[in-house]
Amino acid sequence: MALSVNTNTTSLTAQMNLAKSQTRMNTSLERLSTGLKINRASDDPAGLVTSELQKSQISGLTKSIENIERGTTMVQTAESGLAEIGDLLLKIRDIAINSANTATQDTASLAANQAEVDALALSITRISDTTKFGTKALLDGTITAAQFQIGAFSGQTASLTVTDKDATALAVNALIVTTAAGATAALTSIDAAISTVTTARGALGAFQSGTLASTKSNNASQLDNLKNAESILRDTDYQKEISTYTSEQIRQQAAQTVLGMANQSSQSIIQLLRG
Prior knowledge:
Layout: H1 9-34, H2 45-100, H3 107-130, E1 132-133, E2 136-137, E3 143-149, E4 157-162, H4 180-234, H5 238-263, H6 265-274
Antiparallel strand pairs: 1-2, 3-4
Helix pairs in contact: 1-5, 2-3, 2-4
């Protein structure tokens, strides 16, 4: 083998391999310490882009699930208010049936029935005006095409409308139950109001189960799958990385030994010169 003083090719090769091994070892240490195998774009440019997009969707799905949970609570609050109104309508109906039986009623009892019907109608309006989610009124007719963001991306929304449910809107604000004819007419109005409230409750239930609950379930499934995919792409595989780190330690030791041997070649030249 030719010996040269100016260029020790064997030493340079050993140094180069030692430097490469040190770089790989540093990368492995970083991955082990951070728990991430992508710490900068240069680690895996394509993987970083995919991972960041997944993180964005994960964040969006997480927030959409929170939105759905809040929306569900809001819908339940509205439905609870409608249930109370429904109960009051049933009480008014009972009174109207009692008043329609004029054969056994006197003027005083009919007047008492009228006073109770009027009070119950005021209670219906009060519930309609005061049923709120935070500061947002739910049953006064202001919920018109209210938008719920139920997905991670633009356009993934649902809307809900709840019409006014006060006594005037339900046409039970001016019932007359002091006469047979009035009580009979009142029954027709009350039955229509009960039907309106029941239909509204059904619509809220369908929105809750068919839109909010089903979308939440789907979002949760997507979220689990995306988290798993993002973890596989970005998180450190410790078993693999520890094996890589150990291998690089061995390579470093070998490279250092070879470098020492290569550097001894200069000593051979000195020996030749002395000889």
